[in-house]
Design goal:
The two termini are about 25 Å apart. The chain has a domain of about 160 residues: 3-Layer(aba) Sandwich (Rossmann fold), CATH 3.40.50. It is globular. The N terminus is likely disordered. It contains 13 helices and ten strands. The protein is of the alpha/beta class. The strands form three sheets. The chain has a four-stranded parallel β-sheet with strand order 2-1-3-4, covered by helices on one side. It has a four-stranded parallel β-sheet with strand order 8-7-9-10, with helices on both faces. Strands 5-6 form a two-stranded antiparallel sheet. Its main location: periplasm.
């Protein structure tokens, strides 16, 4: 990505404005805090930075839940309807939310529609990879069906087919890559919108929200510079992922994965698919393979057995992070540490 598209965040922070905003941090908050609900943890982390000292945002999805497949509970629906402000990525990610949001009276914002965001779309290279995966799956399903009476895997085959279909629907060519929170410049735009919304809902704390926003931008700019410096020497190192979730982060820091294995978290891939993945790893030579929760680390071990491959994990959703000021930066920092920690050893 060129600096014209994703500018260095340090160039966007007027020092005088930051100093003026920080002087308001000790002001008394309003008696009733604004109830903020986000669909996923990364949005909660951004909201926590903006709302720090004036409230604690909540998150809808529990740790380990997939935003593609989550089934809302009655308690979730109640939280959706009671929140003062609700933020979600959009229908390309949380497919379970649009119908429930129809019953809300308070503001809801699909952040993918905020002006100023840099958005990516899945391309032709991904389509060809998915088609190959689907063909390999079909062959595997026929083989398993022939051995069904002996192995009893007929039900698993149907589940595998459903998983492939769901993956294709979520990542079809030309569709929005909804993992937009992994671009620091996008996080800054989202935080600014949250600060404006909170100030409107809670005017007594408007200065606090602006001070928190300025502090967030300053921390993010410093982290952005550190990540650029650490990851720049690693741009030609090959690595593979199991899910095309990290393209925004890769684009920001000049990285490019060598392949995407497109594996479902719920279904074990067939023998032909595993063999094809191992062929990619053999051709790449020394490389890193990054799994992510809740995908099985055992599969990564199977793929890499006997090959010059290092294994590590990347978490795009920050499942284990606390919702506090600095939490979003920790999400990006952990991604950078995970990538660099493996690639630097190749």
């Amino acid at each position: 990505m060129s600096d014209a598209i994703v500018p260095r965040l340090s160039s966007l922070l007027p020092a005088a404005a930051l100093a003026a905003a920080l002087s308001w941090l000790l002001a008394t908050p309003a008696l009733a805090e604004v109830r903020v609900l986000t669909s996923i943890k990364p949005l909660q982390l951004i909201a926590a930075a903006v709302q720090d000292g004036a409230g604690t945002p909540e998150v809808l999805l529990p740790p380990g839940a997939s935003p593609h497949h989550y089934a809302l509970r009655p308690s979730d629906i109640r939280r959706v309807r009671e929140a003062d402000l609700l933020y979600w990525i959009g229908p390309d990610l949380e497919v379970f939310l649009p119908r429930v949001l129809e019953g809300r009276e308070q503001p809801s914002l699909a952040v993918q529609g905020i002006p100023g965001l840099h958005l990516r779309h899945f391309g032709e290279a991904h389509r060809h990879a998915d088609e190959q995966h689907a063909e390999e799956h079909d062959e595997h399903a026929h083989e398993e069906h022939a051995a069904e009476e002996h192995a009893g895997h007929g039900h698993d085959d149907h589940a595998d087919a459903d998983a492939v279909e769901e993956h294709d629907a979520a990542h079809r060519p030309g569709s929005l890559d909804a993992h937009l929170w992994l671009l620091p410049a996008n996080a800054r735009v989202i935080a600014a919108r949250m600060a404006a919304d909170l100030a409107k809902a809670d005017p007594a704390n408007a200065a606090r929200y602006q001070a928190n926003l300025a502090a967030f931008e300053q921390r993010l700019a410093a982290l952005d510079d550190r990540l650029r410096a650490r990851l720049a020497p690693l741009k030609d190192k090959p690595f593979f992922v199991f899910h095309e979730a990290f393209d925004y982060f890769e684009e920001a820091y000049g990285l490019q994965h060598a392949g995407v294995f497109a594996v479902s978290a719920e279904v074990q891939p067939g023998a032909r698919h595993v063999a094809a993945m191992r062929e990619q790893l053999q051709a790449a030579g020394p490389s890193c393979v990054f799994s992510e929760p809740p995908l099985r680390p055992r599969l990564a071990q199977t793929l890499s057995a006997g090959l010059p491959v290092r294994l590590a994990e990347l978490d795009a959703l920050g499942f284990a992070l606390q919702a506090e000021a600095g939490g979003y930066e920790r999400l990006l920092e952990k991604l950078g540490d995970g990538l660099a920690g493996c690639l630097e050893k190749l």
